[in-house]
Amino acid sequence: MIKKFIGAIVLGLYLLVLAVAITNGPLISFQSIVLGLVGLIVIIIGISSIAKTIHLVDIPDNIRKKHVGNVPLIGGVVLFFSIIYGSYVFGVDPFYRSIIISLTPIIIIGILDGLKDFSIPVSFRLIAQILASWIVILSTNIYLRDLGDLMGLGIIFLGQLGIPFTIFAVVGVCNAFNMLDGKDGLTGSVSVVIISSLLLLLYLNGIIFSWGLILISSLLVFLAFNLSLFGQKRKIFLGDHGSAGLGHIIAWNLIYLSQETDLITPVSALWFIFLPLTDALLTMVRRLRRASTLHKPDRQHLHHLLSDRGWSDKQVLLTFVIVSVISSFIAVLSNYWNLPEYNHFFGYITVFIVLVILGTSKPENT
Fold it and tell me: What are 35-75's pLDDT values in tens digits?
């Protein structure tokens, strides 16, 4: 009873600060940061209880899902609440508020799909992601208008074709991050690395990336629960809506920075999201070679293959983080030093071909 009372007080103060921020503008203080983090923890604990009650949980099957117990699929929801709080309290560019609004269809469909008694077709999840991208485009008029000097022959302009191309690219990134979400901490940690690299690049250019700080803080709190730092009973998962939502957010961050600023080039996105993108492409190649359905879940992702070869979850997580740090560092340096854009593109193609040659895309007998 005492814990619930304290939690209610903290949550009330959390909402009070949000209300003050909405009415009086950004309220930036050490107290609001602490209150936000504590409030987020209280929200996670509260929503976890609700999720278990309504069966919004991930049930182990000992095939692809080998976790212990029924784990709440609420990561996307709590991140959604957290970035709303952060965006109003600390203030962000209106573009990022459009991103928050656009997450709504992804969150709703994802939650319904996670419920025990619901089964949402893959097509509905794709429609939600397409609708989310349309919301951003219609509210901001921002999309991929050019791909930069991709081939070394001059800037490739897309014109109005940039709209369907952008939607296709964003949906692809959403699903790439969703595919990556197969072990504790993978998607969250890789996302932290990517956003931190953008934070570093903007800082080197004299810009404080408030939106990035909000995302990183929110993800670190999520990871504390996801990696069982508060105990196995408090463990939570991102859920499809959380992983797809992160892909949506990061994809639109890269689009915005490449189209509305000169801080990054469009093709450097290949290096910022190197790991989820490459894993998704190689998985598609494996499925095609096995004549499998492209969207059917299997154990052909890189993290599954490494686990099947005896790698521990910690080794997989550490390896993925290191690879993401290296690829993001390449992206940061290439943009900061204004290296030719076609080097980004041909460099990525070279690495991808090498991975295929080394047998990464070879089907496994599973």
Answer: 677 777 778 888 888 888 888 887 765 555 555 568 888 98
Contact 99, 84 (CB under 8 A): no
| E strand residue ranges, 183-333 | none
DSSP single-letter state for residue 59:
P
Considering the entire predicted model, what is its pTM? 0.87
Do residues 177 and 324 lie in contact, with contact meaning Cβ atoms separated by under 8 Å?
Answer: no
Distance spanning both ends of the chain, measured CA to CA? 50
> Which of 134, 136, 161 shows the shortest CA–CA distance to 147?
161
SS3 category, 329? helix
Which pair of structure tokens corresponds to residue 357? 């040659």
| Cα–Cα distance for residue pair 174/177, rounded to 1 Å | 5
What span, in angstroms and rounded, lies between the C-alpha atoms of 283 and 323? 18
208 vs 214: CA distance, rounded Å: 12
Alpha helix stretches (DSSP H) within 54-121? 75-90, 94-102, 104-114
For the chain, what is the radius of gyration of the CA atoms? 20
Half-sphere exposure of 85 (CA within 13 A, CB side): 26
